[in-house]
Automatic annotation (TrEMBL), chain A:
Species per Swiss-Prot/TrEMBL record: Alkalicoccus halolimnae
Molecular function GO terms recorded: electron transfer activity; heme binding; metal ion binding; oxidoreductase activity, acting on diphenols and related substances as donors, oxygen as acceptor
Biological process annotations from GO: aerobic electron transport chain
Record PANTHER family: CYTOCHROME BD MENAQUINOL OXIDASE SUBUNIT I-RELATED, CYTOCHROME D UBIQUINOL OXIDASE
Protein name as annotated: Cytochrome ubiquinol oxidase subunit I
Xref: InterPro entries: Cyt-d_ubiquinol_oxidase_su_1
Entry keywords, A to Z: Cell membrane, Electron transport, Heme, Iron, Membrane, Metal-binding, Transmembrane, Transmembrane helix, Transport
Automatic annotation (TrEMBL), chain B:
UniProt cross-references to InterPro entries, sorted A to Z: Cyt-d_oxidase_su2
UniProt record similarity statement: Belongs to the cytochrome ubiquinol oxidase subunit 2 family.
The organism of origin for this protein: Alkalicoccus halolimnae
Protein name: Cytochrome d ubiquinol oxidase subunit II
Gene Ontology molecular-function annotations: oxidoreductase activity
Topology within the bilayer: Multi-pass membrane protein
Transmembrane segments: 12-34, 55-74, 80-98, 118-142, 162-186, 198-219, 234-253, 260-279, 299-322
Enzyme superclass (EC): oxidoreductase
Length: 447, 337
């Protein structure tokens, strides 16, 4: 099957590196935000529990950032190694945001270094808190810049090709293409959402295991309030992303929805499977929903797959990735708002076991949703690496050694992943929060 | 100056920055491992920890800046080097990944482990060796290009004296730069034991580094006579480099003005690195690619340069803050914070 085909192997290796990096990148963008919220609450309410939360999260964050940095460095170099032709074209057209991204990293890296080593060094707590602002801005800006590059791959614009040569380049127009608004807002908010849920999972698991410390309860409440806001925001922005696809990449939307005939009042298909002659079986149909997703009203006309040539259509299995993402998105919004509501009314116990278990599942599920979202949008762009301009097969390297590199990198990521998990466990086990509260003279009581 | 020259100068400047900060880091890894083996670890370990912990991520960004920037300014390099360097490039990535992450694991996470510090030490020497292959290849003759197919000639690379010369030069330079910096830092920290050990390392590696520089210079004459000839035109810069080296070595020997001594080391490498770079022009890859045919379009070049200048306004104050807190703050350096 592999036949030492550099194109296929390069795709698999890119998939592996980006898929692995995306986990650390996503929480790398989101966790500084959560740390900032916790440190702010600790300062404003003079509540040392929140400050301790910020401290402990920051300590774990260092480990995940390290992996984010090294895998990101890997992508940055690997893009040139595996996709030299693509990078040559990209350098001419979309080099600007890639370049600016490195400034964002730089900015973030400097202040992160300072933040981590100056907990007790300034006279006022405010000064230390202020260091987080450049970190949050730097992390979010790097997501912003790199996502504009990805948006450009979906709607390349801001240049002309005359006799195979790129001319008349307008870097700003290339950066702010029609895919940019929905993509950046969706990506940034899911970073916050995923991070809030990953941190909530930790607190929920602790409470489920019978830990009654008020510390974990505060952590859970804070992360859930944040998650509820981000989850609703994600769904709204996701809906706008659908409208963007309808307008600019109808083939991707149609493939995601197995929508063959152009029609008004199109239904949304959930799950199911596709027979040999393109019949949808065992799927749940929501009447009119696809038309509403595409253009606010049930009689929006949705273009079907039959309008396109076969060789520019993406694989139809992206349907499942789309469904997974949307389903989990709804789930996260439901769970977090339910928790916040129950806790607010005070009539019911928000910390009941089933709900805690649902929250605990939310962290891993949000990572799954994030991966599904990326796979959906990247595979949904195939066969193009630059939509409508360069095919993926034209972008790849011609080297024969990609297979060997694939094996090496797979090993590397396995080792990194396993050690990361091990180190994080050890770090928090050997310094449990109860002991740290005791050492710092923080009052620990049970509820 | 043309856009092309501005572009390559900016990139070269960042590569120089990486050369200095990364050398300090790489060498420190090696010394830390070496002294651990010799049971002198406690002496220099805390010095190394205190300086390196806050800055390792910043070091990495210098490199990222260079290889992202070069694709922006000179997109054709992605095509030539990207295709040829798949294996050495991937090896360098893997080494960097191991180093970066295990450094974080060992420092913040787990307890001290011999295995981590071995990885940290070994990668410190292997990374410079693998990264310098790029400079070697740029001299020409190691890459074949036939109808659009670029490939690296491994036999040629591994059997070439010049390429091994460059590798050794890189390794000894790393050790020298690093030891010179750490000597200065130890002196500031008023840690006498660490100071005398590190000073010994600095003096040990001083002469090998200059000798290797001369040997590589001579080997280049056979490798690429054209480049060698234009290097001779920059003889005065190599002269400055040599004088700076002598001053640095003398000051370290005399245990005087160690800050100035380190600045001299920086000048030594700055002069040699820029003389090498300037004489290499116009070629990015001899003889296939020059800065003129590989350059991006004008609109992009202008945008990149504007972004660069705006970026500097952000970076310089922040870097200054970082240095003030960790490098120039006597209490921190002495370990009282
Ligand atoms: C530079 C812009 C860029 C950005 C921001 C992303 N990607 Fe992408 N992606 C590429 C650049 C790219 C690429 C290297 O250009 C690929 C290789 C083949 C292709 O079409 O695009 C690609 C392919 C690709 C594929 C394989 C598609 C296939 O070949 O069938 C997957 C699953 C992803 N990426 C996943 C991701 C993830 C998880 C990202 C988040 C971190 C991501 N992409 C962001
Ligand atoms: C193909 C696309 C991508 C490239 C080329 C890329 C490149 C890089 C590089 C070179 C680094 C290391 C920077 C350093 O040394 O500090 C990095 C780290 C990082 N990247 Fe990516 N990246 C890509 C995709 C993404 C995406 C889509 C996101 C966000 C959603 C992202 C967010 C981050 C974050 C948060 C880090 C963590 C390191 C830090 O905090 O500095 N990256 N990336
Ligand atoms: C709740 C309902 C959601 C809807 C309706 C939705 C919709 C969409 C759409 C239409 C796209 C494709 C955009 C494009 O290709 O340009 C997309 C992409 C994506 N989604 Fe979602 N999404 C939802 C929830 C989520 C959640 C919960 C996550 C992760 C935690 C997520 C992660 C992503 C990612 C990473 C991408 C790729 C980046 C992008 O193209 O914007 N989505 N989503």
């Amino acid at each position: 099957m592999f036949d030492n085909d550099p194109v296929l192997l390069s795709r698999i290796l890119t998939y592996l590196t980006l898929g692995f990096h995306a986990i650390f990148a996503t929480i790398g963008v989101g966790i500084p935000m959560m740390i900032a919220i916790a440190e702010w609450m600790g300062m404003k309410r003079k509540d040392p529990h929140y400050t301790l939360l910020a401290r402990r999260w920051a300590r774990g964050f260092v480990i995940t950032v390290a992996i984010g940095v090294v895998t990101g460095t890997a992508i940055g170099l690997q893009l040139s190694l595996l996709w030299p032709n693509f990078m040559q074209a990209a350098g001419h057209t979309i080099g600007l945001p890639m370049f600016m991204e490195t400034f964002a990293f730089f900015f973030e890296a400097i202040f992160l270094g300072i933040y981590l080593y100056t907990w007790d060094r300034f006279k006022t707590k405010m000064k230390h808190f202020l260091l987080l602002i450049p970190i949050v801005i730097g992390a979010t800006a790097s997501a912003f810049f790199i996502t504009t590059v990805n948006a450009f791959m979906n709607v390349p614009q801001g240049f002309e090709i005359v006799d195979g040569i790129v001319t008349n380049v307008n870097p700003i127009e290339a950066m702010f293409n029609p895919a940019t608004p929905t993509k950046i807002s969706h990506v940034i908010i899911i970073c916050y959402l995923t991070s809030a849920f990953v941190l909530a999972t930790i607190a929920a698991v602790k409470i489920l295991k019978g830990n009654k410390s008020v510390y974990h309860r505060k952590a859970l409440h804070m992360t859930m309030v944040a998650a509820a806001v981000f989850a609703v925001g994600t769904a709204v922005i996701g809906d706008l992303s659908g409208k963007y696809l309808h307008e600019y990449q109808p083939e991707k939307l149609a493939a995601a929805e197995w929508h063959f005939e152009t029609e008004r009042g199109a239904p949304l298909i959930l799950g199911g499977y596709l027979t040999e002659d393109n019949e949808v079986k065992y799927a749940l149909e929501l009447p009119y929903a696809l038309s509403i997703l595409s253009g606010f009203s049930p009689d929006t006309e949705v273009v079907g797959l039959n309008e396109f040539e076969d060789d520019v259509l993406p694989p139809l299995f992206i349907h499942y990735f789309f469904d997974t993402m949307v389903f989990i998105g709804m789930y996260l919004a439901f769970v977090s708002t339910l928790f916040v509501f129950l806790n607010w009314t005070k009539k019911w116990n928000a910390f009941n076991k089933p709900l805690l278990m649902m929250i605990a599942a939310g962290g891993p599920l949000s990572i799954l949703a994030m991966e599904s979202g990326w796979i959906f949008t990247e595979v949904g762009r195939q066969p193009w690496i630059l939509n409508g301009i360069m095919r993926t097969s034209e972008g790849a390297t011609s080297s024969e050694h990609v297979g060997l590199m694939l094996i090496l990198f797979a090993l590397l990521y396995t080792v990194l992943g396993v050690t990361c998990a091990g180190v994080l466990r050890k770090m928090f086990r050997s310094n449990p929060v109860e002991r740290e509260m005791y050492k710092r003279g923080i009052n620990n009581y049970e509820v | 100056m043309t856009y092309e020259v501005v572009g390559i100068t900016v990139l070269w400047l960042f590569l120089y920055g990486y050369l200095i900060v990364a050398s300090v880091d790489f060498g420190a890894g090696f010394f830390s491992y070496y002294s651990k083996r010799k049971n002198k670890e406690s002496v220099i370990h805390s010095i190394i920890q205190r300086y390196l912990s806050p800055v390792w991520e910043v070091t990495n960004v210098f490199l990222v800046f260079f290889f992202i920037g070069i694709v922006g300014f000179f997109p054709d390099t992605a095509y030539y080097y990207g295709t040829a360097l798949l294996i050495p490039g991937s090896v360098a990535i893997i080494l960097l990944a191991i180093r970066g992450s295990y450094y974080a694991f060992a420092t913040y996470g787990a307890k001290e482990s011999n295995f981590y510090s071995f990885l940290y030490g070994a990668t410190g020497l292997l990374i410079p060796a693998s990264l310098t292959t790029v400079l070697t290849i740029s001299e020409g003759g190691y890459i074949s290009v036939d109808d659009g197919n670029v490939s690296l000639l491994y036999g040629e690379l591994f059997s070439s004296l010049y390429s091994w010369g460059v590798v050794i030069l890189a390794v000894v330079s790393v050790l020298f730069i690093s030891a010179a910096f750490l000597t200065y830092y130890a002196a500031r920290a008023k840690d006498n034991e660490a100071f005398s050990l590190l000073r010994k390392y600095a003096l040990t590696w001083a002469f090998p580094s200059i000798i290797m520089g001369i040997i590589v210079f001579a080997l280049l004459e056979q490798r690429n006579p054209e480049h060698f000839a234009s290097m001779l035109e920059y003889w005065w810069m190599f002269g400055i480099s040599f004088m700076a080296f002598l001053t640095a070595a003398w000051l370290i020997w005399k245990k005087k003005n160690l800050g100035i001594a380190f600045i001299m080391v920086m000048i030594q490498y700055f002069a040699a690195f820029f003389a090498y770079g300037a004489s290499h022009l116009p070629y990015l890859l001899y003889p296939h690619l020059t800065i003129y045919d590989g350059f991006t379009n004008e609109a992009m070049a202008a945008a990149l340069i504007i972004a660069f200048i705006a970026g500097l306004f952000l970076l310089i104050p922040s870097l200054y803050l970082l240095m003030r807190l960790f490098l120039f703050d006597a209490e921190y350096v002495e370990g009282r914070r």
